[in-house]
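Figure 6 in text form: structure in, sequence out.
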């Protein structure tokens, strides 16, 4: 299922819901990412405080894809473009 996210405040409940759908506690997710449970809680409270790299790592662990859709000109709407970012780069948590 796709979820349109336009604001960071819309991301918070989605992250929480995805974690729970995977039957992961904050502590279990933190363990998979190598961070503290309090860091996961902070991200779920305020996703705007996480870097793009950290968000991509989190989404990878949750088995979720980030899709960027160009909603610009009408000509652009006829073409779908998917952008991928390498997951190998480790950001600081």
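Output sequence:
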């Amino acid at each position: 299922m796709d979820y349109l996210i336009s604001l960071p405040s819309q991301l918070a409940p989605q992250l929480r819901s995805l974690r729970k759908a995977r039957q992961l506690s904050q502590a279990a997710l933190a363990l998979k990412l190598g961070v503290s449970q309090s860091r996961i809680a902070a991200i779920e409270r305020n996703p705007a405080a996480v870097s793009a790299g950290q968000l991509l790592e989190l989404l990878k662990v949750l088995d979720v894809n980030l899709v960027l859709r160009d909603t610009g000109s009408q000509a652009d709407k006829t073409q779908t473009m998917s952008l991928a970012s390498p997951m190998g780069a480790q950001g600081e948590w």
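Caption detail: Helices lie at 8-21, 26-33, 37-45, 52-61, 74-77.
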